[in-house]
Amino acid sequence: xxxxxxxxxxxxxxxxxxxxxxxxxxxxxxxxxxxxxxxxxxxxxxxxxxxxxxxxxxxxxxxxxxxxxxxxxxxxxxxxxxxxxxxxxxxxxxxxxxxxxxxxxxxxxxxxxxxxxxxxxxxxxxxxxxxxxxxxxxxxxxxxxxxxxxxxxxxxxxxxxxxxxxxxxxxxxxxxxxxxxxxxxxxxxxxxxxxxxxxxxxxxxxxxxxxxxxxxxxxxxxxxxxxxxxxxxxxxxxxxxxxxxxxxxxxxxxxxxxxxxxxxxxxxxxxxxxxxxxxxxxxxxxxxxxxxxxxxxxxxxxxxxxxxxxxxxxxxxxxxxxxxxxxxxxxxxxxxxxxxxxxxxxxxxxxxxxxxxxxxxxxxxxxxxxxxxxxxxxxxxxxxxxxxxxxxxxxxxxxxxxxxxxxxxxxx
Length: 412
Ligand SMILES: *Cc1c(COP(=O)(O)O)cnc(C)c1O
Description:
Blueprint: H1 14-17, E1 24-25, E2 28-29, H2 38-51, H3 55-69, E3 75-78, H4 79-85, E4 89-94, H5 104-117, E5 122-127, H6 131-143, E6 146-152, H7 153-158, H8 160-168, E7 172-176, H9 183-197, E8 201-203, H10 214-222, H11 224-237, E9 243-247, H12 252-258, E10 267-275, H13 286-289, E11 291-295, E12 298-302, H14 327-334, E13 339-344, H15 345-359, H16 365-380, E14 386-391, H17 399-406
Parallel strand pairs: 4-14, 5-6, 5-8, 6-7, 9-10, 9-14, 10-13
Antiparallel strand pairs: 1-2, 3-4, 11-12
């Protein structure tokens, strides 16, 4: 059943050669930084290249993943859901069962461990919906580090439960009070703080975005997802899946799953949020509608206004409403190795309820986008095949919003 992708064999040594020394994946990526920050980012790059490949770092990270995070997370075969749709079999990589309920902790624990190896005292980051802030505050508590999370004043009000979580975990939540008081302003504030504190602190980004070396570091820390899933799927079925799929916000959970399958004869599909539709401002489908542009210190496909500034975006999933995308995804699309498609808010909600009712799993609305693609594929290909979906997180954070706007899923 495997559809042979023409160029998958070109990817056997890919991870070793991408990004290049300047942080480029083809024409995408790089590090667009204020000159004062260049030394700080060079320090992180050099430290990463030496420390993170040392036996001591690797064995410590393995121990943390096993004993603290609860890895490996399982691969699960959705038999009832698959049977409802036809003969195509849907499988999930259960990152919702990772400690804190999503994949983000995979890179936060790596970043925290890197900070301790460097002798840093503090982790600094911005957060939008608060998911990255909570995961990083968790890592900081584990390693006994201070944690400053910059968050727009508007988001602090909207995401009150995550602010409470960060406080309970011992982090400081510092409001960004200028401009629109949301994610962009929080990024500015976090960069400014890092500029003043980089000798004692380290900046920790929340997805496979930002200036080099972050897209590479985040991909590498997330790659455990794909390495585990590939071995588990082979053990369960004796075969590789026909398709692997994941939702794409900044792109970290997707690269985590995809990287292990790049050299395989497997179709790889990234699923972007189409929100309420294709008009500007109604979606966050940067690969589908974006043009090359620079934002937050890196070059990639970006949804932009005529003057080149980031366009307003919408997705029902707050973890997906980002007007750009990690530069490695832009490259993988350019060379045709990964296909990018989309799911609307309503398709994601249908998938959300189908998974609740058929399998007893409440998914994050972000992850429901990837599942929506798998459901669409299974309906269109009822004769057979298999799709492995990255279930990037659990949906507990979403239930109040879903119940208020969509009810509790009667009829699914
Ligand atoms: C943050 C988040 C995402 C989106 O981030 P990526 O970097 O694109 O993976 C997806 N799923 C969940 C559950 C999230 O919390």
